[in-house]
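Sample entry (85 residues):
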Amino acid sequence: MARKKKTRLPDGRTVEGSSVPFQTGGEHWNEYLIEDGSMLKVKLVATDIIKVDGEYDDQGNPLYALHSTQVVVVDSPEDLQREES
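Predicted structure, serialized as tokens:
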């Protein structure tokens, strides 16, 4: 049985929905090369997916609210790194 939860939508409304089980199909990194030579790697990781009760998008699909966290990794050239004490 799905667990009921309240969540806030981007339009500010608080709605109720059901937390749904999910599997990760793949978590890919977005990579950004910064002008100073640093590489930022960013990945969004879903922590919870809630199917909102009675809400649908413009195409008639059920509305899902995604709760997530982001993971950021920085790889910078040695000349930019702090010297170890």
